Amino acid sequence: MKKISKLYPVFIAFLAISLGVFAYVSEIPFLDIMELKTIDLRFKSRGSIEPGSNIVLAVIDEKSIAKEGKWIWPRSKIADLVNKLSEKGARVIAFDIGFFEPDEKKIVQVINSIQSEAKHIDIHNKRFEQYLENLKSKSDNDKLLADAILDSKARVVLGYFFHMNPEESGHFDEKDMSIHQKNIRGSRYKFVRYSSGNAYNAPLIEVNMPQSNIEVVSKATNYSGYFNMIPDPDGVVRWMPGVLKFNNNLYAPLSLITAGAYLNEPLSFKIAEYGVEKLQLGKLSIPADALGRVLVNYRGGEKTFPHIPVTDILKDNIPENALKDKIVLVGATAAGIYDLRVTPFENIFPGLEIHANFVDSILSNDFLSYPAWAPLFDITAIIVAGLLIAIALPRTGVITGALSAITLFTGYILLCQYMFSEKGYILNLVYPLLVMVLVYVSITAYKYLVEAKQKRFVKNAFSTYLAPSVVKQIIDSPEKLVSGGEQRVITAFFSDVQGFTSISESLTPHELVELLNEFLTEMTDIILNNKGTVDKFEGDAIIAFFGAPNYLDNQAEVACKSCIEMQKRLAELRTKWKESNKPELKMRIGLCTGPAVVGNMGSKNRMDYTMMGDTVNIAARLEGVNKIYGIYTLISETTYSESGNKIMAREIDSINVVGKKKPVTIYQLLGYAEDVDERINRSIENYTNGLYAYRNQDWEKAGSFFKAALELTPDDGPSKTMLLRCDEYKTTPPPEDWDGSFTMKTK
Question: Which of 5, 24, 26, 21 is nearest to 384 (CA)?
């Protein structure tokens, strides 16, 4: 077991890295939530940062409710607030509350009744009538608020929300939709560019119906934005949806509209086929993901921004310049009436302050983002972390190895924290750390558990698709088995039954299974007896290879020998099947010798010892090329050159297969030297001369040689194929730069 001890760290690292990369790409929900939790920890580790001085919060808190009365207040009080904020020099007023229903109008209704009755009894007093009109105007709280917004020196941004589920908006009709859509026109993106026609169908977050402010208030300002927030699966708000799609229009959130109103800059979008490509406020680029979501760079916990009770503003109980040129976000923070949210800093957090955090990060150009290179970095970190531990542990003792792993583990956490705190980049923590733990635990456990069971593992794992003699070699010399894949020179084998689909349709399921099992058993036994490896069965097809995991000095010759034996045995079986009125199966084979990657590949719970690479692809192509030339065994030039003198083959053609740039010279495997008589030899000689003339574009001479070959062997498929091709080239010659090869149109 000494040699295998050098290989197990690589094997374990490969498995752990493969698992880590697979999990990272597959986005495992549990692990992704764990990753989100690490972002929260990064916020807390970074701590609070000082926000800008541009934002204050006008809060409806416990003090304001005690002084001004219970919530909900009449619109006249909100109108007074707008007037006060405007007088104090606020530049932008944004409401994180909505005015979705008309205010109470009983007084207005009474005045309307008095006016109606006065007309009925024919009382005409202009002074009295004017008095009633003024009184009505002062009693219409909705109009008072609309007038206050309209007259305000500050830009006023109204908040509204979208219904996210169809059930919530089922009672709305087309008229309601038209009114609400008109009322939220102030939050629609007006500058949207699409990279292509398909970009119009880009996947964005779609909503069902807006719940807008009442019409008289909505008309009073050109600014509005939704205050919807979409928590992550664990309930924490980490993103601000920068765009929501409704009725083929795109809308912006309250915080973005507020920042745009403050900076007096337009919002613009560029959308590609995959989603949002660019989100801009003026010349400022805001990092958004494909759905248009923007990470909120929280400044800290609750009350990071100044809170001013609304009652103090109404009573002029604040410093003179406290609101001058500020963004004033108006919302509720009193217990029981405000929008409760969970953030990375706190489990109870006012939604109003989330808007403040987002607006401040825009004004400060201080964003968090997943950089474009993050996926490459994350996967690289997974690979490097696993390899470093796999390299370090076998070379160190228990304590030194543990310290090395802890150092790497801690160092990566500190790196990610630095990139978060100093650069605003979010890099994946969970998956690289998970791979480190997996590799460390697995290698440590291996020393005590796995090595003692290695021989049994090899025997169980390979006895089903390797010859017993090969399994014994691996058990005796386990270094021949490389876990995770290695590059080896092998001979790849692909076979398929001619016309199997039509054959299967003529048999009952039981007859088909019986016939196929007999065929596969006989063919597989020949491969195993020649120390080949059966990769897999795909219906009637057999995929195998020679030269791995065991070394074969003469693998190409052994592979050719196996093919000869298989075709001979199949001829015997056809005689037997004919006597039993069973279909006579014929098998096409493709062989190619060359470098390939072989090893255990797959998932954690299911692995196959298989092969990959160009050599494998060529062998698969050659199996199908047999059909074109009417033969049954084709081998590559590399196989032919290494097959030895005992194997007889003839050069058939040079072809361009799908997926290969250079032509491949192919040979028909004929058998052993003693299998080829004088007549066949003379036919081969004629074919060879014809092929030479064909490549020199002497179609007449080539055709005469192919005809001569057919006179000796009338059923020779390659001669028939090449003769037809010569006739075609006589009328339609190949291009001037033709290199003598034939281009395959299909795989």
Answer: 21
Q: HSE on the CB side for 508, CA within 13 Å?
A: 2
Q: Cα separation of 16 and 405, whole Å?
A: 15
> What single DSSP character describes residue 521?
H
Per-residue pLDDT, 7: 72
Tokens matching residue 609: 């010892």
Torsions phi, psi for 321 (to 5 deg): -105, 20
Q: Is the peptide bond before 74 cis (omega within 30 degrees of 0)?
A: no
- CB atoms near residue 267 (< 10 Å): 23
Residue 3 confidence (pLDDT): 42
Q: List C-alpha distances in Å: 684 to 104, 471, 722.
A: 104, 41, 13
Q: Are 257 and 224 contacting, i.e. CB atoms less than 8 angstroms apart?
A: yes
- Residue 374: strand pairing partners: none
Of 738, 731, 657, 720, the C-alpha closest to 683 is 720
Cα distances (Å, whole numbers) of residue 343 to 255, 347, 426: 17, 6, 17
* Alpha-helical runs (H) found in 264-397: 310-314, 351-363, 374-392
Q: How far apart are CA 697 and CA 461, in angstroms?
A: 54
- Rounded CA gap, 424 and 370, in Å? 9
Give burial (CB, 10 Å; 0-12/13-18/19+) of 154: buried
What's phi and psi for 728, nearest 5 deg? -65, -40
Q: How far apart, in whole angstroms, are the C-alpha atoms of residue 172 and residue 485?
A: 61
User: Which residues on adjacent β-strands are paired with residue 58?
Assistant: 308, 330
Helical spans, DSSP H, in 248-309: 254-263
> Of 584, 682, 540, 565, nearest to 633 (Cα)?
565
Query: What does pTM read for this prediction?
Result: 0.57
Report the C-alpha gap between 390 and 408 in whole angstroms. 12
Instruction: Tell how far CA 124 is from the center of its chain.
Output: 77
Which residues in the chain land under pLDDT 50? 1-4, 108-111, 132
Q: Which two tokens stand for residue 627?
A: 């059909």
Which one-letter DSSP state was computed for residue 168? G
Residues 346-403: tens digit of each pLDDT: 998 999 999 999 999 999 999 999 998 999 999 999 999 888 888 888 777 778 888 8
Contact 518, 573 (CB under 8 A): yes
Span 274-314, pLDDT tens digits: 999 999 999 999 999 999 999 999 999 999 999 999 999 99
Q: CA-to-CA distance for 613 and 595, rounded, in angstroms? A: 8
Residue 744, pLDDT score: 77
- Contact indicator for 517, 560 with CB cutoff of 8 Å: no
Q: Could you give the C-alpha distances from 605 to 19, 27, 455, 600, in angstroms and in order?
A: 10, 18, 20, 12
Please name the residues in contact with 44: beta carbons below 8 A apart, sequence gap of 6 or more.
344, 345
Q: What is the pLDDT of residue 72?
A: 86
pLDDT value at residue 586: 95
Q: Are strands 155-163 and 340-341 parallel, antiparallel or unpaired?
A: unpaired
Bridge-based pairing of strands 486-497 and 587-602 is antiparallel
Q: In the prediction, which pLDDT does 600 show?
A: 77
Residue 482 to residue 549: CA distance in whole angstroms = 8
- Name the pairing type of β-strands 327-332 and 92-95: parallel
Residue 172 has which token pair? 């709305």
What's the sign of the alpha-carbon dihedral 394, 400, 401, 405?
negative
Q: Are 162 and 211 in contact (CB under 8 A)?
A: yes
**Distant-in-sequence, close-in-space partners of 312: CB < 8 Å, separation ≥ 6:** 63, 64, 318
Q: Which DSSP symbol is given to 206?
A: B
Helices (H), 124-252: 126-139, 141-151, 174-183, 215-218
Burial zone of 354 (CB within 10 Å; 0-12 exposed, 13-18 middle, 19+ buried) = buried
| Neighbouring residues of 326: CB distance < 8 A, sequence distance ≥ 6 | 54, 55, 56, 89, 90, 91, 92
**Which pLDDT value is given to residue 476?**
60
